[in-house]
């Protein structure tokens, strides 16, 4: 039988793909397994960040070092995630106009 009429898979499928093994697994930052690495300058700032971590249910290792520069970038990026913007759907031609004139959209603003 010719290879032009073969309807199956030519190369074998790797075993780990068929079992659902995730080969591209990314570890989530801020969990117990992969905590955030934060540097603060004072003990007061440490207590503030611990309260913030508890509020957002995150885990971090906080080091207090008065000589080093304060580093809270990882925490700020996790807390201030960008929101997905949702736009209102433009009305169809025969829908009433959104400006409130009472006319159809195609006669008023379309």
From TrEMBL:
Database matches in Gene3D superfamilies: 3.10.450.50
InterPro entries found in the cross-reference section: SEC_C_motif, SWIM_PBPRA1643
Database matches in NCBIfam families: SWIM_PBPRA1643
Coiled coil: none
Species whose genome carries this gene: Photobacterium pectinilyticum
Protein name from the UniProt record: SEC-C metal-binding domain-containing protein
Origin superkingdom: Bacteria
Pfam families the UniProt entry points to: SEC-C (PF02810)
């Amino acid at each position: 039988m010719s290879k032009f009429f073969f309807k199956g898979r030519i190369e074998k499928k790797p075993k780990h793909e068929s079992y659902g093994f995730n080969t591209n697994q990314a570890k989530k930052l801020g969990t117990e397994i992969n905590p955030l690495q934060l540097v603060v300058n004072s003990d007061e700032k440490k207590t503030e960040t611990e309260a913030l971590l508890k509020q957002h249910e995150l885990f971090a290792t906080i080091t207090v070092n008065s000589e080093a520069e304060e580093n809270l970038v990882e925490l700020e990026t996790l807390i201030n995630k960008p929101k997905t913007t949702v736009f209102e759907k433009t009305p169809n031609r025969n829908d009433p106009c959104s400006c409130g004139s009472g006319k159809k959209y195609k006669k008023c603003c379309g």
